[in-house]
Design brief:
mainly alpha, Protein Binding, DinI Protein, Chain A
């Protein structure tokens, strides 16, 4: 086991000088998503969509709660059959409310994923040209780095390029 580790380390030590003319850098993609003009626009549009749906569902929730209160107050007035029918209707309303809420939540999540994917697709050519211009061999996401030199962080330069080249992303 120790021999394998020594061979692997030896291989990496020997191979490092052969790539010394090309750099390995890292990029904070989350920062690009949060701070770029297009990323901020995505966040604002999705937040607005989420807030609209939340207010709509709060209204529906209030209506269901009012129906429930009204039904409880009519318990002694209504016949058993009529009361059971109204309870079934209320349960159906609650079930529909939950299904609609879950569907809307999933739709918003899918919209966010699609918009983020579109931003990443537009980011890829920028990274490719930047890596060619600066003789960069590998660009790694910052979240996968345990420790790295600040000089190897290209997030600021890429953020500037993204802000110049990508003004908006279509959000469905």
């Amino acid at each position: 086991m120790k021999k394998k580790i020594i061979y692997i380390l030896l291989f990496f030590i020997i191979s490092i000088p052969s790539y010394s003319s090309e750099k390995i850098v890292y990029l904070d993609v989350e920062k690009i998503m949060q701070e770029s003009i297009a990323g901020k626009a995505i966040i604002i549009k999705i937040k607005k969509k989420r807030d609209t749906s939340i207010s709509k569902f709060k209204k529906k929730e209030k209506d269901i709660f009012e129906k429930e209160k009204k039904l409880i107050s009519q318990k002694n007035i209504l016949s058993d059959e009529e009361f059971k029918k109204k309870i079934q209707d209320l349960r159906a309303d609650i079930s529909n409310y939950q299904k609609e809420r879950n569907k809307t939540s999933n739709d918003i999540t899918q919209t966010r994923i699609r918009a983020s994917t579109n931003l990443i697709k537009k980011l890829t050519p920028i990274l490719e040209s930047y890596s060619k211009e600066n003789s960069i061999r590998i660009i790694i996401q910052k979240k996968h780095i345990v420790m790295g030199s600040k000089e190897d962080d290209i997030t600021t330069e890429i953020l500037d390029l993204v802000n110049q080249k990508i003004k908006s992303i279509k959000v469905d």
